[in-house]
Structure formats: structure tokens, C-alpha cells
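User: For documentation purposes, I need each entry recorded in a consistent format: the amino acid sequence on its own, followed directly by the corresponding C-alpha cells. There are two entries in this batch. Please keep commentary to a minimum and don't merge the entries.

Assistant: Recorded as requested. Entry 1:
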Amino acid sequence: MLGALRKKSAINLLNLISSVRHGLGSEGVVPLVSTQLKSLSTAAKEMTVRDALNSALEEEMSADPKVFLMGEEVGEYQGAYKISKGLLQKFGPDRVLDTPITEAGFTGIGVGAAYYGLKPIVEFMTFNFAMQAIDHIINSAAKSNYMSAGQISVPIVFRGPNGAAAGVGAQHSQCYAAWYGSCPGLKVLVPYSSEDARGLLKAAIRDPDPVIFLENELLYGESFPVSAESLDSSFCLPIGKAKVEKEGKDVTITAFSKMVGYALQAAQELAKEGISAEVINLRSIRPLDRATINASVRKTNRLVTVEEGFPQHGIGAEICTSVIEESFEYLDAPVERIAGADVPMPYAANLERLAVPQVEDIIRAAKRACYREVSMSATA
């Protein structure tokens, strides 16, 4: 039986290579990326993040025959998280490719296809598994444009769930935003809402450079308001532009991915105590929208950064440095950093909760920044 499985995997891999070669002659027109971020405050409809990602994939694959999706279970099974539901039936096995369980193998094929002008979307069942393919992502994809003096473009998207889910242990729970955010040659996007998911994934697919697209498993089933504009097939969000989710005047809170929701909940609670918090949804880790962050801090004079990842060398540390370098004289209080615990993710539910930032952690940090009294029991 094991021999049969190996034979099937080998056949799948050969078929995959054949499919990639078959697509090299495809022609297509890529829609231009919008450079303007318009107000989306007139939303009337709701959509889940899962459906937002699925619709973005479907529209971009329809618009450009060079775009194809590959990964484990993306085809026949409709995707491990059903992000690719219906795509195999619409676009066929030449453009929705089920791969063997070998991240190093299919990621390398994807990078090679991008070298030759195709636009692969490589799905990882979790970004923790992308560790198997990190040589292809960093050495082959991220560095090739520079090392070829601009002669080789690598239009590829690496996407999948990132960070902690629930009860999946340390090897399935790591946040890779800081890992990839430190690497020149990559763009790193972190959607929160359904409009983020649609607009940023479209931007990633149309971009000529490799993009790391870090989703959150726990957000897939969440519904968010979407505007009529964001449902248009031409909709696209600019890479490197943060969004002010909520305006405020007393303290700035930066967050990305699932933590944006926590920051907004914290802001609601803080408002009950007379603290007006401004919440910034980063959307993009690399490039980082330093201008929006610093402009907010210069208004509020206080900063709290929030992230799921480890505290050392994290996204919050980079944001703090940017503010110290550019807006130090505007700060009226020490910067507060909220991050995950500096330990591998525990499996037990009670310990897992302690290892991931919670709404109350953000509230306490904002109060400290505003010199509001925090009870001893709350800080224990």
C-alpha cells in the first residue's frame, strides 16, 4: 500500500510539472492596481472572510489565465478551509493543482513557474508548514529580482493561515509576520476584514513581486460589512497603506489580523471610561505604513502596539523604533507593547489563552499609557 501511495504521489508531481509547462504559453491582461484608498463607510452587505478570499481568487483567475492555484487539497477537496471551493470545477485541473504533501517540492515548482511568466498562488495548509519551503521563498523568490539586476520578476503569492488557531499546539500556532517582514524582496500582507481580504489578495496577485499573504484561520468564518465598491471586480487595495479603523485622540493602538478586532473591542471599553482610542489596522507589514502610525501618535501622544507573535524582534518593536526615531518629542508616556508570551504555544486551553493577547491586556496597557489607575488585582 505504501508503494502505491508513493507511486500516486510521483504521478501527481509529474502531472503538476506538466500542467505548469502547459500554462507557459497562456496570455492574459492584468488589471491595474488602484492607487487610491477610498472611504468604504457605506457598506450594507455582509460577507465572510472565507467568501471574500474565494471571490478574489475566482475573479483574478477569470481575468488573467496566467494565474493558477496550487497546494495540498486545493482541488478535489475544495481546500482545507474551503477557500478554493468551486475553483476546480470552473478552471479545471490545469489551473487548480492538487499537490503531494511536499511543500519544498511544490513551492519550488511555483517559483520556477513565476520565473517563466506565470502567476502562481501557492497555498500552505498552515504557514508553519512553509518552514519546509523557506529556502525557495527567501533565496529563490525574494532575492532573484535583486540578484538578476531586475531581469527576473517573481510574481508569486504564498498564502494560508498564520498564527494561533485553537488547540493545535506549538508547531501549528506560530506567527510569521516578523520572520517574513524582516526579509528584503518580500511584501507581507495581513488582512483583517472581508474588504481587506478581497482588496489585498487582488493586489497581491497583480503585484510583480513575491507576496506573503498571512490569513487567520479563526477569521475565515467571521462576517464583516462590505461596500458595493469592494464587491466590484476591479476593486483593489494599495499595498503598504494602513487603515484607521477608529479615530481617537487619547492613545493610538496598532494591530493586525485578528488582533484588530481585539483592539476595537478594547477601544469600546475604554470609551466607557472616557479614553478615546485610535485603532490602526496595519494591513501591510512590509512595507510598513510608518507615516500613518506617526501621524496618529503625533495626535494622541501615546502608543500601544498589539500582536500575536513573540515579543523579541517583533512587529511592535519595529513600530516603537519608528516612533522613537520620528516622533519621540510627541510622546507623553512610554510606549506599551502587547505581544504573545515568549514561549512555544501551549496545548492546554487555559494556558493557550494566557499565551495570546486578550482584550483586557490591551485595556490595561492603554490605561497605563494614559496614566489611569489600574487596580493591583488587574495587573496580577
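Entry 2:
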Amino acid sequence: MRKMLAAAVFRVLSGVTQKPASRVLVASCNYSNDAMFAIKKCDLYRLEEGPPVTTVLTREDGLRYYRMMQTVRRMELKADQLYKQKFIRGFCHLCDGQEACSVGLEAGINPTDHVITSYRAHGLCYTRGLSVRSILAELTGRRGGCAKGKGGSMHMYVKNFYGGNGIVGAQGPLGAGIALACKYKGNKEVCLALYGDGAANQGQIAEAHNMAALWKLPCVFICENNLYGMGTPVERASASTDYYKRGNFIPGLRVDGMDVLGVREATKFVADYCRSGKGPIVMELQTYRYHGHSMSDPGISYRTREEVQNVRRESDPIMLLKDRMVNSKLATVEELKDIDVEVRKEVEDAAQFAMTDPEPPLEELAHHIYCNTPAFEVRGANQWIKFKSLS
């Protein structure tokens, strides 16, 4: 079973056979404005039709997706380095390898739509609008962090993004609640509630499915299936690894989560489904993480180095987009290398800030407990120590 699941991730999308980008010689800078690509057909459950099997990628969108995925990749690699240097403490869950998920999801919804996810949140933080500087500074616990140094790796927020959540599966019912607010307001907005394959077995996910179906909430339940829970292959933890069917009475679809275009088109499809008033839908993204479950997990005790290398070689999301763009003359290899250099500098500058920005003072410990509330005192570790809470 595990070999079958891994093979599904390793497959390069059917369609046009492509040469590696490094072998393509571009004679001039006569770029194409757009190109048509085949995308893998989604597996469907309780659906008569699914997302399209072809899509158009414009040069502008392609360059933007490439830059965003490279930024997430470089940011996560820098977070790995900062953790090992002990600038980052505590929990830290990286998402390198899963860049097509965060970038593709954002490309398929509106900025006014809503997203809530698990603790593997850095990529979505960036695509929802947070800067690399504010993310890395939050990881190092500095005042310039997006949560002013108080949230750390798992608790980052920005408008219409309700953070990573440390309680496994808790974002399921929370996402249903956000979708309930969308329906109550009648604003045609949707909520994406993301969880991992490990969290898919939590009871509260099933409870959220039930309530969302009863009330026809505009909620997309998204399982990021990277084939492993916390050191456990999916077939050892799940009686059924068809996570897109887990809604039972809710329609679902399974998507190649290593292809940013496939994720984009599937996200447009499920968002339109929810906006039309049909209720919730489940989407499984088959993806892969290159790091272990967290920084405390080497990631090779339950899978081989060869397996990780095979995914990098055959199905890396950045490589797949790069090959498509170069072979279709949407960009040149040199142009994409220039983007790589710019991204590397941006991340290095952000890391320097994250290492030198001051930590928040102790006096601010009780700040921002509530929003728009008059100041009040909060008792500290003992009754003689008190902190003032400010909004």
C-alpha cells in the first residue's frame, strides 16, 4: 500500500513529455504570453464532474508562482539552519516539498476568503500575506515577528488567516465555525480548513464534517496527505487511506499536490462548489515533506533516503513548474536563476533581522490578550507580580 501511495506522488503529470529545463537552449527572449498544460485528472467521490484536465498558465502567473514557491523553500531551509543554531527554540514543523499546496491554494481563492491550518503553517503564512521577515522573526521570538514574538512556529496570524493550531485536528471544527460566519453574513466567502493525514483520524474532524453537511456550510476540508504522520506511514494509522472519501456523505476529490496548476484548478473548483450553496466538500492533496515531522525528527528512521531523493528527482513541485515554463518559453533558465538569487538575498536579509531584532520585554507579557478592551491588570507567577494588559 505504501509503495502504491508513494508511486502516486512520484508520477509526473501525464500530458506532454518534457525535457529537463537545464537542457533547454533558449535562443532569444521572445517569451510566450501563456501556454496550455495538461494536468492530472482528479479522483472523484460523489461528484459527476471535477476540475478540468487542461489549464492555461500565463507568464506573469508562472513567474509569481515560481518566486513564491522558491521563497517558501528558502525560508524553510533557513528556518532549519536557525533551529540548529538555537535561534529558534521549541516546536518547529517545516513544509519544504509541499510548496505547491500553499501557493496553489492561494491562487485558487480570493483574498477575502478564509484559511485555517495546522502547525505546519509557514508556507500558508507567506502566501496569505505575511513577509518572510515577520515569519522568521516570529520563529526566533522577536518583537518584529507577526505575533510580536509571542506565537512562535505554530501560532501566526494575518487578516483572513486564523493561524496554525497546535491541537491536532482542532482546526476542523474551527474552520466549520468560520464557514458558519460566512454563511450567516451571506458574503459568498469560503473557508479552507487544512489538516494532515494523521489528524484525519481525529474524531473532531468527523464531527465537523457532520455539522458542516447538516448546515450546508461553505467549508472546504483539505487533507494534506504527505504519506506520513508523526513517524508513521499512513497505512499503519488509517484503515482507509482514501482521505477524500472520509466525509462519507460529503463529496470529495483527490488531487496531485505536487503540481501547483493542478492544486490551483482543483481549488477553484471546490471554492465555486461551496459558493454555489451546495455545502462542504473534502479535498485530499497528495504531497510530500522533505524534512521529518518536526525538527526533532530526522525523517529517515521510517523511510529511506532513497525515497526522499526519488521524490526530489521525479516530483519536486518547483522543478516541475520550472520545466514547464522553460519548455514553453514562458521564461528562460537564466531568468529563473535571477529570481533564485533575489529570493536568497531576501531570505538572508530577513534572517539577519530575525537574529538581531530585540526580544519583547517582560512588561508586554500580558498585552493583546483581548482586542479593543480597556487596560486591566493580570497577575503574574505570584500575587505580588502584576502585568498590564493592553489591546
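Summary note for entry 2:
The chain has twelve helices and ten strands.
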